[in-house]
Amino acid sequence: MLCAVLVGAVVQNLVGLGLGLVAAPVITLVAPELMPDVLLWLATALPLVTLWRDHDDIDWRGLGWTFPTRLVGTVAAVAAVAAISPAALGVLIGLVVLAAVVLTWRAVTVPLNRGTLLGAGLLGGFAGTASSVGGPPLAILYQHSPPQRMRTTLAVYFTTGSAISLLGLGLGGQLSLSHFWVSLAVLPMLFVGTLAGSRLRRRIPLARVRPAVLAVCAASALVLLVRSVVLLTT
Q1: Cβ distance 163 to 47 under 8 Å?
Q2: Which end of the chain has less neighbouring CB within 10 Å, N or C?
Q3: What global pTM score does this model have?
Q4: Cα dihedral sign, 8-160-216-201
């Protein structure tokens, strides 16, 4: 788990998301009872570390449109987690994200406007609360933005969104204090990963950031799909 969190923090500092991609499958295999709240605690803390170093170019106006629907998506996810198999939810979310990546890779350019921001907030709130993989919807939307703006905007979104998801799970009685202490124990890996990712970031050409973002989103969807299918068949 420590290694997974470290690598996930490095990836997220490089392209703006990735902690869930790397850490979620490992935590699910090692200790599935810790999901999704341990990863949500970490997803709340990591962007704060990132924003401490980089806090310019945040799209506050765009984020303002995602927050109301993020709340709606969170409430829907809390209800869905209580009523539907998490594995079935994972399959659905993975398919939706993968389809979005395929469509936007070449064929479709998603405009960055109020409507798409509201939709990304809704889907991100639902996916993040239900499966801890809530970053791809907004990342796909900001894929054509300057890398620094995308990274810092996603960082604010992850912090506030994960906090909302944790609040929703807490009100639903689905949080454990022991899981918080586990998150605190692996927190130092986030700091190490942030420093390593910041150094590596300087060596990545700007032209490669968008493909890297889409690749991470696609990988997140595939990992979630495989993980969910395995849970459904066991």
Answers
A1: no
A2: C
A3: 0.84
A4: negative
